[in-house]
From TrEMBL, chains A, B:
Its EC number is 1.4.3.19. It is an enzyme of class 1 (oxidoreductase). Pfam families: DAO. This is glycine oxidase. Residues 7-354 form the FAD dependent oxidoreductase domain. It catalyses: glycine + O2 + H2O = glyoxylate + H2O2 + NH4(+). Gene3D superfamilies: D-Amino Acid Oxidase, subunit A, domain 2 (3.30.9.10), FAD/NAD(P)-binding domain (3.50.50.60). Residues 384-416 are annotated as: Disordered. It comes from the Bacteria.
């Protein structure tokens, strides 16, 4: 199969790759997206929590800043996307309720709330009774909770469907084949080679293949993104609409469990985190763990119908931060390594990559908050030779000028 | 849809209905089978244990006798069926190992073994160590067990597939429509009426619709079989062949759990027993119960892939015995109410119904063992007017002569 030359080829049709393709196409670039099974990977497994506040952890403030910056873009992103695609994405803003059971749990959650308040995050502390008043299906043994009312959520399967519809309207070419490797000429990327033969030639390649982003042929080792698959098993249940009014989370037996309600009564119950390589088997042990923990959090879950069980692979990175931006290989950009945050971070990622394609100066998309700019936090160059990933000031070294921009609709050079 | 007149129409294409149709067709009768979704009900859910010995209970010796009589027919039934259909049914004879955990469980299992020995059933008592030597995947906490080496098992989905292939060879007509009701003229059944319109006219109707057998229009209330749906949820897992060498069973938290291995590494894990009406939802609680109990029995089950989850409806009866034979309505026979024993009892049921169709004297298909004949144990007439089901001698009242036989290939009377 030979596809006409385009400005950009995006490898991977999950929410990140599709969002990048959409934003690039809206800027006037011609775009091809290649994926053997669009929307079938981590995006199909994902619950869709947009919850940077309730998921904050002590050592990961850069990730929090990224999450908040992307969450701020979600309302407009969802509205534009739904408007263009004619597909609602079930964007909801009722927040996340994080609950504690034992007194140790409660103390830990209280300390986390202190930390959240220190960061000026909008959270409310609730007693056990207030938790149950907010969510009557919660277990009687809930001792207290923290409500992050700014957190939101979305249905990732609808987001994928909407993005595919929007891309179709924009005239983006979708190639349903696996990309085997990069097509490199000299030191410059010229496109990608397809598994069933043929290639897609392009001026820029955006690698957004999630957990598989490290598996392409033809990528120099020092440029190959250091992603690894982190398996997540998830269940979809069906109850009455209103079974839960917002996302609920808790730590049960030391493992995090969450339940995300949809408007149609679907409840997404997730998720395991397993280092199992490229293993997407749904296992008896995975389901057992989810069901055991969900029963503790919301006992009435046992009455719900099981409509789907699924395992996906998140693209994990060594520092839990994504890889977004230019690489040391000319023409290759990364939009991968989003781990548990692909759905949350896709508006930010897409805008950032679109800016990079145009050669715009790297902006601090995170706004006025203190700290390193997004370009530095997420730079794929941070894992390159000579870059110690433990260097807390590494971002300062990475400030750089704009790249030579790509003009939309640039004709294919004769040499290709 | 109008189907040509046949000698017999069988309502229901589960293992029982299909077996009856096969045996009737082999005797030369023209046969039609009607079912909206052949093989998709309880037969699709069933694990396929042929385990009358390990499933014996104190008050149900008639059911034991039926089971043993049908088990004795299984080797020839499986061989003939596989030969005719060209489909192997995975008939296996390595027996069932029933294990106990706590000392109370062990004492109860010891008493059951006493009872089995009193009935001259072939069982061996094993220590915990002997159990684990026989099945190394069993939990270390297993205290002892009873091996019923005469028990067998089969793959019900293969049995269904084989029966459908055999029926096709025999020229049996398969109508994939729901039977809405009986076609009765005067006091005689003349066939069935189909949901999509039209009817199938026949000299005899065999009602083998499992849990739905009590739902047909046009059946006089005193003839309507007293079956109720008993929901069973089941999981199919996949491991290495040899994960288990035989069926294992145990009582965990007061509920029975079993695991049935197939030659290809599939493990069937069953089954819940729920009185929920016509509810075939797979629920979070059902799967949780199965997984919890299976982990106690065989801890390594957590590593296995989950390949299928399913819920079926068993046709339960007031006395846990099936309904097989003539009814008070001329032309209507029952082959239903097999509850958990449909797969085990299908050879016996099919032979018995075929004999009834031919008007042969009711034989004691159970052989020389003491007790009432099969005809009396299973007679649908036992629930009719004036028949107290608690009367221990009721079978004596039901001995009767042969019915007027049906000649194979009888032409349709003009009146029809």
């Amino acid at each position: 199969m030979n596809v006409p030359h385009t400005d950009v080829v995006v490898v991977g049709a999950g929410v990140v790759g599709l969002s990048v393709a959409w934003r690039a196409a809206r800027r006037g670039y011609t775009v091809t997206v290649a994926d053997p099974a669009p929307g079938s990977g981590a995006s199909h497994a994902a619950a869709g929590m947009l919850a940077p506040v309730s998921e904050v952890t002590y050592t990961e403030e850069p990730l929090l800043r990224l999450g908040l910056a992307s969450l701020a873009r979600w309302p407009a992103f969802a509205a534009e996307l739904s408007g263009e695609a004619g597909v609602e994405v079930d964007y909801r803003t009722e927040g996340t309720l994080d609950v504690a059971f034992g007194s140790d749990d409660l103390a830990a959650l209280g300390e986390l709330a202190d930390f959240m308040e220190k960061l000026a995050l909008p959270v409310d502390r609730l007693t056990g009774r207030e938790c149950r008043r907010a969510e009557p299906m919660l277990a009687p043994s809930v001792r207290g909770g923290v409500l992050a009312s700014g957190d939101a959520w979305v249905d990732p399967r609808r987001v994928t469907a909407a993005l595919l519809a929007a891309l179709s309207r924009q005239g983006v070419t979708l190639v349903t084949d696996r990309v085997r490797g990069l097509a490199v000429e000299g030191d410059v990327v010229r496109g990608v080679r397809l598994a069933r033969g043929g290639r897609v030639s392009a001026d820029r390649v955006v690698l957004a293949a999630g957990a598989w982003s490290g598996s392409l042929d033809g990528v120099p080792p020092e440029v190959l993104p250091p992603v690894r698959p982190v398996k997540g098993q998830i269940m979809r249940l069906r109850g009455d609409p209103g079974f839960l009014g917002r996302c609920v989370r808790g730590v049960v037996h030391g493992s995090h469990v969450y339940m995300v309600p949809r408007g149609d009564g679907e409840i997404v119950l997730g998720a395991t985190q397993e280092e199992m390589g490229f293993d997407t088997r749904v296992t008896a042990g995975g389901l057992w763990e989810l069901l055991r923990d969900a029963r503790e959090l919301v006992p009435g879950v046992t009455e719900l119908e099981v409509t789907d069980v699924f395992a996906g692979l998140r693209p994990g990175t060594p520092d839990n931060l994504p890889l977004i931006g230019r690489t040391a290989l000319e023409g290759l950009l990364l939009a991968t390594g989003h781990h548990r945050g692909g759905v949350l971070l896709c508006p930010l990622t897409a805008d950032f990559i679109a800016g990079e394609l145009a050669g715009e100066p790297a902006q601090d998309l995170g706004g006025a908050a203190a700290g390193p700019p997004v370009a530095a936090i997420c730079s794929p160059l941070r894992f390159g030779p000579g870059r110690a990933i433990s260097d807390p000031h590494r971002w300062k070294k990475e400030e750089r000028g704009p790249s030579p921009g790509l003009r939309p609709g640039s004709p294919a050079p004769e040499a290709r």
